[in-house]
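C-alpha cells as discussed.
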C-alpha cells in the first residue's frame, strides 16, 4: 500500500481518550506511524464518524455457519452440546475443499461487516472425510488463508491438533477422521503453514490442541517443545461441558484447568476457550497465570454450555476476549451485550462488569479489543503508533448516535444497536466495508448460498 497514506478522523478513540480532528499517518503494511492533530485537507481520505479499533474475533470455526439455524428441532433424547455435535460432524464430513473455501470467504465477510477485523480460526477439517491426507496436506489450511486474503480480514490461523476420541482413548472415532494428526504430522503441517504465510503480513500462526480430551499430555508436550516459535499463541477448548470435567477427573484425577496449569507453563499467550466450569481455586490460578479466557456467549448459550463467571474473573485480575465460535450469530455488539446481561441476570444489578463512573460499553469494548489482539498475536486492538490501522467507523448520523457523546455512542451500539450502525470497516488502513457493503458482497454471498444448496441436495 501507499506508505504515505494519511487518514483524517473527526473523532477517534486513541488509547484511553477520545480525540477530535486527528490524522493517522500510516507506514507500510498499514501500521500506524503517528496520530497527530490535523485537518481533512492534510489527509488523503476522511472518516466523518466515530472511530474505534476493530474487534478481534478470538474463536471461530467458519464451516459451522453451515448449520446455523438447522439444529432447532428437538431430538428424541434431551438435546445438548453432544447431540448438536452429531449434526455438526455430519456436515463437517460433507464439505469439499472448494466448498470450505467459499464458506470461509463469506463468513469472513460477515465478520468484517459486523466489526471483526481479525479472526482466530480454530481449524480442524484437515483431511478427506475418510481420513486420507490430501495430496497437499495443507490443502484446507491454504483454503482458509486464501479466504482471509480475499476477504481482507486479518487472521491467526490455528491448525488444530486432534489425536483421540476422548480421555484414555488411543485414536479418533470414525466421524473424526478428518481431524486426526500424530504430533509429528501436525508439526509438519505447522511448518507448511508457516511457509505459506511468510509473505502475508495479515496472517499469523498459532498452536491449537483441540482439548484435553482430544490431546494426550505427551502429545501436547511434544508439540510445544518441538515447535521453535515459543511466542506464538496457544489456544484450546477447556472446561466447556460438565461431562468433560467428570471424564477428566476420572482419568487424570483432577479438574481440567487445574491439570493444565500444573502440567504446562501457561502464560499470556494461552487462550482458554470457554473455561466455563472452573472451581474457585481454578479461577484464581488461571487468572494469575495471565492466560486469556476466550468467551463466546452466544454459542455457549446456544449449546447450553453454562455461564462463565465474568465478574469473578475480572475481580481476580483475569482478561477476556470474545469469539463467535459456531458462528450461529456473527455480531460484536451481541457477544459483548450477552456477556454483561448474563451477569445482570445472575446478580440483579446493572452495569456489573465496569467500574464506577465508567461507560459499560466502552469498558467491555476496549478490554475485549486489547486482550483479543494480544492473544491472537496481532498488532491491533488499540489505535496508537506501532499498531495496525484496523478501524471501525460508527455512523455519527444514525438516529441513535447523532449528537451523543462518544462513550454514549459506544454504549448505544453495544446495548441498543447492531451492524447497521457501522458505516465503514478498515483493515491495515484499507477500507473493506463501506456503507455496510463489502466489495465482493454479492458474489461471495451467492457462492455461500450455492454451497448450502449443494449440501442440502447432496
Ligand atoms: Zn470452538
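Sequence:
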Amino acid at each position: 500500500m501507499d506508505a504515505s497514506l494519511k487518514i483524517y478522523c473527526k473523532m477517534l478513540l486513541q488509547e484511553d481518550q477520545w480525540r477530535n480532528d486527528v490524522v493517522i499517518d500510516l507506514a507500510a503494511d498499514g501500521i500506524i506511524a503517528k496520530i497527530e492533530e490535523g485537518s481533512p485537507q492534510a489527509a488523503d481520505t476522511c472518516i466523518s464518524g466515530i472511530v474505534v479499533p476493530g474487534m478481534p474475533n478470538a474463536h471461530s470455526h467458519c464451516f459451522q455457519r453451515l448449520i446455523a439455524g438447522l439444529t432447532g428441532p428437538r431430538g428424541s433424547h434431551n438435546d445438548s452440546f453432544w447431540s448438536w455435535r452429531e449434526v455438526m460432524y455430519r456436515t463437517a464430513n460433507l464439505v469439499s475443499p472448494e466448498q470450505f473455501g467459499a464458506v470461509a470467504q463469506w463468513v469472513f465477510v460477515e465478520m468484517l461487516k459486523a466489526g471483526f477485523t481479525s479472526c482466530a480460526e480454530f481449524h480442524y477439517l484437515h483431511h478427506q472425510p475418510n481420513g486420507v491426507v490430501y495430496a497437499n496436506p495443507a490443502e484446507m489450511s491454504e483454503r482458509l488463508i486464501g479466504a482471509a486474503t480475499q476477504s481482507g480480514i486479518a487472521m491467526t490461523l490455528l491448525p488444530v491438533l486432534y489425536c483421540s476420541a476422548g480421555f484414555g482413548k488411543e485414536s479418533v472415532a470414525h466421524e473424526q477422521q478428518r481431524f486426526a494428526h500424530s504430533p509429528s504430522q501436525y508439526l509438519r503441517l505447522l511448518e507448511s503453514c508457516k511457509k505459506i504465510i511468510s509473505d502475508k503480513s495479515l496472517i499469523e500462526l498459532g498452536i491449537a490442541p483441540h482439548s484435553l480430551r482430544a490431546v494426550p499430555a505427551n502429545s501436547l508436550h511434544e508439540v510445544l517443545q518441538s515447535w521453535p516459535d515459543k511466542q506464538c499463541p496457544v489456544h484450546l477448548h477447556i472446561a466447556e461441558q460438565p461431562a468433560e470435567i467428570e471424564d477428566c477427573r476420572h482419568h487424570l484425577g483432577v479438574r481440567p484447568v487445574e491439570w493444565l496449569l500444573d502440567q504446562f507453563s501457561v502464560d499470556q499467550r494461552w487462550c482458554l476457550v470457554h473455561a466455563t466450569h472452573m472451581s474457585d481455586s481454578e479461577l484464581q490460578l488461571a487468572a494469575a497465570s495471565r492466560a486469556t479466557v476466550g468467551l463466546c456467549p452466544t454459542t455457549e448459550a446456544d449449546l447450553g454450555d453454562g455461564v462463565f463467571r465474568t465478574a469473578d474473573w475480572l475481580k481476580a485480575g483475569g482478561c477476556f476476549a470474545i469469539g463467535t465460535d459456531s458462528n450461529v450469530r456473527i455480531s460484536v455488539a451481541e457477544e459483548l451485550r450477552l456477556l454483561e446481561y448474563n451477569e445482570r441476570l445472575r446478580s440483579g444489578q446493572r452495569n456489573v462488569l465496569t467500574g464506577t463512573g465508567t461507560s459499560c460499553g466502552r469498558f467491555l469494548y476496549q478490554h475485549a479489543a486489547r486482550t483479543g489482539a494480544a492473544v491472537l498475536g496481532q498488532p491491533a486492538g488499540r489505535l496508537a503508533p506501532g499498531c495496525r490501522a484496523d478501524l471501525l467507523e460508527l455512523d455519527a448520523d444514525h438516529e441513535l448516535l447523532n449528537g451523543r457523546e462518544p462513550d454514549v455512542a459506544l454504549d448505544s451500539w453495544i446495548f441498543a444497536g447492531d451492524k447497521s450502525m457501522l458505516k465503514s470497516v478498515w483493515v491495515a488502513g484499507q477500507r473493506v466495508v463501506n456503507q455496510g457493503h463489502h466489495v465482493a458482497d454479492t458474489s461471495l454471498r451467492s457462492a455461500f448460498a450455492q454451497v448450502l444448496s449443494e449440501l442440502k441436495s447432496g
